[in-house]
Each structure stands twice: as structure tokens, then as C-alpha cells.
Amino acid sequence: MPQLVRRSFLKWISGALAAGNATVVSMPVLSSVFRSLGRHERAQGSLQRVVRLNDLPTGRPVLVAIMGSRRDAWTLHSSDLIGRVWLMRRPADSSDPATSLSENRLGGDSPILLPDHPADGARREIGPVPDGSRIGSKDSVTALSAVCPHLGCTIQLANDAKRYVCPCHHAAFAFDGQRIAVDQHGRPNNAPRRMDAMECRLVQDETSKEWWVEVKHEKFETGATASAAI
Amino acid sequence: MRRFFDWLDARTDYRPLLRPIRNRVLPSGPSWWLTSASCLLWLFAIELVTGLALMATYSPSMASAWASVHYISQSTAGSMLRGLHYYTSHALILAFLVHVARVVLTAAFRAPRELIWVTGLLLIPLMIAWAVTGNPLSANQKGMAQIEVEANILGSTPVVGPTIRRILIGGDTPGNLTLTHLYFFHVGLFPMLAFALLAVHISQVYRHGLSPLGQPRVERRAMPYWPHQTIRNLAVLSIVVGTVVLLSWRFGAPLDAPTDANLPQMPRPEWYFRWLFELRRYFTGQWEFVATLVVPLVVLIYFLLLPIVDRIVSRRYAMLLRLLTVFVGIGIWGWLTFASLAADWNDAGYLATQRTSRDLATRARLLADARSIPIEGAVALLRNDPKTQGPLLFQRHCASCHSHADEQGQGIVSQQVSAPNLYGFGTPRWIAGLLDPDKLALPNYFGNTKLADGEMAGKLHELFDAAVTDAERARLREQMALVARALAAEARLPASAAADRRDADQIAEGIELMRAELACTDCHRHRDQGDLGSAPDLSGYGSREWLAGMISNPQHERFYPGDRNDRMPAFVHDPQHPGQNILNPRELELLVAWLRGEWYDDQRSSTGSASGIAAERIEVDGQPEMTARH
User: What is the ipTM of this complex?
Assistant: First the structure.
């Protein structure tokens, strides 16, 4: 009898020792492989100058690079491309729905649903009225992230230059970032949500008196129906 | 020899270990049907061996991955090695499909071979994931773009998606950890999983023997496997390997340009994913998960459960079911794949992007061959290349006013031309046009600017109006040609260095005309003669330094001071604060170099230069040295 008790005790203690060893070894193994789960690279959370207002044409979107410092695991890139933004400068009266409709009117007779309200996420903070006639006091600039909310490809301008399209899975957006419900092939749009708006404002440089567009760079989760900054 | 093996066997007793192989039996005799299994196994072995050899040189980091892969492909043997690894992986996936089709058709999944079937089927997604993690390892543009999209597709899976995505990418954005993680999967985890599945698969094959093919017939007697089946296996394998070797030899494995978010891209999946890529066209919006998740899983589960389905239906319908499974499966797969490819082949935008990508890849490899790769990594090759960056910078900053297009209109054509066409700027031909009163006011020169009827235009008209006779006019044109020749020499274009030496007499004559008879220096400065402030400086006209100055600040007294400047912005208005200027110093340098046609080019490429000026740039001890190309 004591012999049997002894045996089962030895079995039990062997199992416990093996499990203990396995745990001790697997902890650093797993936490090392899964380390990247907790590694969130926060984008610079501040507004930064990206382009001079004078360099933006009116009524035509321009893809502008956002430069900044970027850490890639063990490498620091002090000045590198961290994102891209579609900037659209509009004269004062274009927030009028009628104008924005005609501006976004897409060729052909495809049943495209056009958005009827301007981008809500992009704020316009124009300071004091700038001098010079080239800048109307009510000019506005909207900033939309060029990262497709679908699967993260870079959104481009369509060949007809009347809307944005994503080259990967043909997501399409109007110039104010709203999804165009039906893409150019007449099928439902793949994009789960509108283009993500970035905070944007106009500021005047104190010394040069130049007007600049400032954008707050952010990254957003792809694939989700609601826009969420990472 | 025999005695040696006897000696070895006496000590190790190895012969019984080989008995299962020696004693393998073909229940229905040898058959070409059975060759796919052995072919797969040996292709797998080739992948292991070539992969292992590639590991000896490959280095997974953003700075070195592309560089090390390019280094491998620089030697003929290395290029072959990469080719073998690459094309064998595709052959492996194809052979897998053939093998599955064969097993389904011959109903080889029936009891007691269920475990063979299941482990074999699970190897397919593993094999595809294995290939997918291999493509981006060289940190090339296409591969990285592909894995990013693929990771985002996995990332949109409910619950586990974001976690899988982060493990695959190694964080939020692709980078160093993406490569190390993919490497870990590709050469570490996946091979171990594959070995485990293969061990069960093959031991089960030996345990249960080969399944009989169809009904036993008189003429199909059982025969030993070796060598009757082996010879057939090797014949098929030789054809496959021969094709792979030929492809590797002829084309090598592709290597796209180093990944760079600045470069254009239009990622498309590899051929084995094309059917799913096409499928999502039919499941858009909220139904997208059907194409990305449900369909692949349902297909896999259907095949896994095939032995059960096969047992439930009657024997007659089971045959029909198997035939339908194979041929409808191949039909749908082939049709979706073709539809997807055809859509892209008919898309001009896609083809143009593909062409650009190919050109960039060729350019990157050319630069890497000629100069080896700088410490900051292969990405710097194209970022510091005037030929690549010049057109992009010009397009972005200059093309709203200037064109850069030759006589045929090839190049960058501005939509609203309001400034000179800068194609060939600084060449005798370009300057001669400027000095021609008939051309000066054309859109290619000052046509759309206020200089069209400025003092320069007035002076030229005055000179040409004064020349009444044909002889006088011809003489004036000759003089203008000499001035153009002399001014062009001021640019010190690398491509015309030899011509400048040859034409030294003409150049001297042109300078003399400029400073004396034609009185250019009344308004312009030329070295020690004339004053600044009224017209652009002609000293070093078109040189690197002159162009950089003009682009930085055209209102500087050397160029067009005050209101003489017509709308051209100062691209570097404050050199003390580079961040506040439109162009940073590097961009300015690249733009100037491109306008002057200064970039490295291969001797063999004849259409190297966009501005009609071909130059070769050789770095000597870090000092750029220009030599003319003849």
C-alpha cells in the first residue's frame, strides 16, 4: 500500500515539475513573440505644417505628404514619410450644397448617390483675415487621410479627376470623403465607411506672413465601420 | 560495396529500417496517377534545401533585406538559387492541387485513410501561408504591399483578427518587425508544423499502404513499388524540375523595387489568391466577410468532410459527387482567376502602374549594381536618384506652370502652361530658341509671361529689325547661335563637357559678342562685366549653382528682382529654416540634377535621359565626378 501511494505521489510530482518547467520556459517564449501586440506607435499628436496655402489650387484635391519622425522597432527615422493626406481647398461658397453637388457631379448616367453634406470631421480654423487678394477670408481646406478605410491602400484620384478611388478593391469616395454608394462598376462600394478626416487648420506665419495648412496626423483602424484613431 | 553495407548492417542493423520502403507494394501495379505524391515530396525537399541555402545570405531588416536579396541574385548561382526557390514554391502549390484532385477522383480518402486525407488537406493552407510569408521577405514594394493588405484582411476577422494582424505585421505599421516576424513564420514555425503534418501523413501512407486504383483487374497485378513506380515518379519530377530550372535560368525570381511608401503601387494578390480577390467583387460592403472568410473555410471544411459525405451517399452518386467536386471546383476556380486577371489586363491604369513598377525595379537594381547599397538601406537608392525623383518633384512643384516635354509632347505637360518649357534647359538649342524673337513669345518660352513683351523681347526685335538685308540677318542669326553656344557652356552640363572643350573657339567668340557687339552686358552681368539688378546673371547660366539659386529665390537680385519676377514662387525662401521651405535641400539638389540630366545611367540603355542629355555619374571616394558619355 505505501508502495502504491509512493508511486502515485511520484507521478504527480513528475507532472507538476514538467508543467512548472514548461511554464517557466514558455512564458518568455510567448511574451517575446506576442510583444508586438502591446507595441503601439503613436503618431505625432500635434498639428504640423504640411503645405503653404498658396501652393494649394482651389477646387482640386492635392495629395500631400506628412513628414515626421518615425520609430521602426530599433531604428529611428528622424525625417520620413509618416502619412499622406488629401487636401482640398474650396472657395468660400462651395459649402453650399448645390455647388458641391455640381462639383461632384460624376459623368455618365450611373446611379451614383452623392453626399449632400460637407465633411464633418475636418475643422477649418482660419485666423485673422489674411491680406492679399489670393486668399479669400472664407477659404476652407479639408484634410482626408489617404489611407483607404477598407484595407489600407493609398487612395488615388480617379482618372476622370472627379472622385477618389482606391486602386486595390475599387472603393470610391466623393471629394468630401463620403462613400459613393455604388462604385464605378455599378457594384456596392467595398469601403466600410467614409474617408477619415484629419484635423486641419490655417495659420499665418508670424515672420513670413505666409499662410500655411496645418494637419494633425492620425492613423485609423481599417475595416471597421466607425472611424477610430489608433 | 556489398561488404561495406554488410559490415554497416552488422553494427547498426539498419536494413530492417528500410524494409517498409523496399517492401512497398503497388496493389494495382504502377501508374502515372500515383506520381503526384512523390513529386510533391521532392519539390518540398527542394524548397527546404534552397531555402536553407538562402538563409546563409539573407538578412531580415528593413535596411538590409532587399540589399541582401539583391546581393544573392547578383551571382549567377545565387540568381538560380532564388529562382529555384521561387518557382518551386509555385510548382508545389500547383502539384498540391493536382494531388488533391487525384485523391478525390480515386477516392483514396476512404477508411482507413482519413488521417492521410486530413493531414494532407491541412498542409494546403499551411503551404499557401508559407508562400505568402516568403514573398515580402525581400522587403520589396510589391511583397510588402501584398502582406499589408493580406494582414488587413485577416485583421477584419471578428475577435481574433486584430491580434493576428498585429502578430503578422509586428505592430501597427510594416517595418523591421514585420520582416523578423515573417521570417520566424517562414523558416521557423511553418516548417515545424509542416514536418508534424508530414510525419503523420507519410507514416499513415506506409501503415495503410496504397489504395487500389479502381476495381482489381487481371492485367493489374500487385507489383513492388521499387523500381516500377519510382521510375514513373522520377520521370514526372524531372519534367517539373526541368521547367523550374528553365524558368529560373531564363527569368530568375522577380525582385521588385525596395519598399517605399512614396512609390506608386497597386497591389494584387498572387495567382493562387486571385479567385478570392475576384470573389469579393460579388460580396461587397457588409457581405465582404463571405468572400474573405466564409468561402475559404467552407471549401476547406467541405473537403475535410468529404470521406463522410462519400460514405453517406450511395456508391453510384459518390462517383458523380467526386467527379463534380473536381471538375466544378476547377471550373469555378479557373473562371474566377481568369476573370480577375482579364479585368486587370483591360485596365489601362493598372497596366501603367505595373509598367512604372517594373521600371523602378530595373532602375533600383541598376543603381544597386553600379554603386552598392548605402548604410541607410536600399530605399535610399531611388530616393536619392534624380532620374526617379526629378519627374515626381517637377510634377508636384513645377508642372502647374512649366512643362518639361520634348517636341513630340513626350514628358510632363502642364495643364495651364504659364512659364517656359524646361525640357533641355541650358542646352544650345534651348537658348537659341530664347534668343529668337519669333520663338521668345511662344508658350514654350516667355509666351505666357509678362516677359513676352519685356525688355529682352524689345532688344531682340530691335536687333533683328536693324538687320535689313538677308546677309545682315544671316550674320545676326550666326552671332546668336554663337552666343547660345557660349551660354550653354556656362551650364557646364556633364554630357557636353567634351563638346565644350571641342568648341572652345566658338565659345570664346560667343562670349566676346555678348560682352561687346551685342551689348548683352548692358543689362545682364557676365562675370566681371555688367551689373546685377536688372536682368538675370549670365555667369554660370544654367549651372547647378545658378539653377539652385533661381529655384530657391527668383526675386534675388541675381535673377528677377522685385516685380520683374512673374509669379514664380521662392521655393527656398528661408535657407535658415529648411522645414519651412517648399523644397528641402535634398529635393532642391535632386530637382536641379534632373533638370540638368545629371544621373547615373547604364551604358547600354539608350533612352536613358528625359531631358535629352545623357550623363554618366561615377562616384570616386564619395566625390561625384562627372564624365561625358559619347
Answer: 0.80
